[in-house]
Amino acid sequence: MIEKIHTDHAPKAIGPYSQAVKAGDFLFVSGQIPADPQTGEIVAGGVVEQANRVFQSMGAILKEAGADFDKVVKTTVLLKSMDDFGAVNEVYAKYFNGEVLPARAAFQVAKLPKDVMIEVEAIAYLK
Fold first, then answer.
1. Can you tell me the distance from the alpha carbon of 100 to that of 25, in angstroms, rounded to the nearest whole number?
2. Can you tell me whether residue 64 is helix, strand or coil?
3. Going along 7-126, which residue ranges are E strands?
4. Which of 34, 43, 110, 121 is 20 to 30 A from 56 (CA-CA)?
5. Closest C-alpha among 124, 3, 111 to residue 63
6. pLDDT by residue (tens digit) across 70-100?
7. Does domain 2-125 have CATH number 1.10.357.10?
């Protein structure tokens, strides 16, 4: 069974995709950018503020699906600049701090939607 997951506590999709899709025991969370869920505006500040907003949105989506950060098994972090890698790791560690941490890839990319500094997607195992 495939199910769309949506919450008003995360930004609306800015394209033809779902915030997340539950497929069997897995949850696939679309890339989250640092947009305010109520206004759609990109949060002010630097990469730390943007990363926190991304993970707050991801947390809301996970919660809507009956999960939390401990259920995440894989993340992909897209950065505008690898110079922000250390700062993002500090924020990341506040949200992912269980005994088993997710597998992860991190990339610097040429450009992200709305020219943000960070986008993160995730896969969670719901059992």
1. 18
2. helix
3. 20-23, 26-32, 72-79, 103-108, 118-125
4. 110
5. 124
6. 999 999 999 999 999 999 999 999 999 999 9
7. no
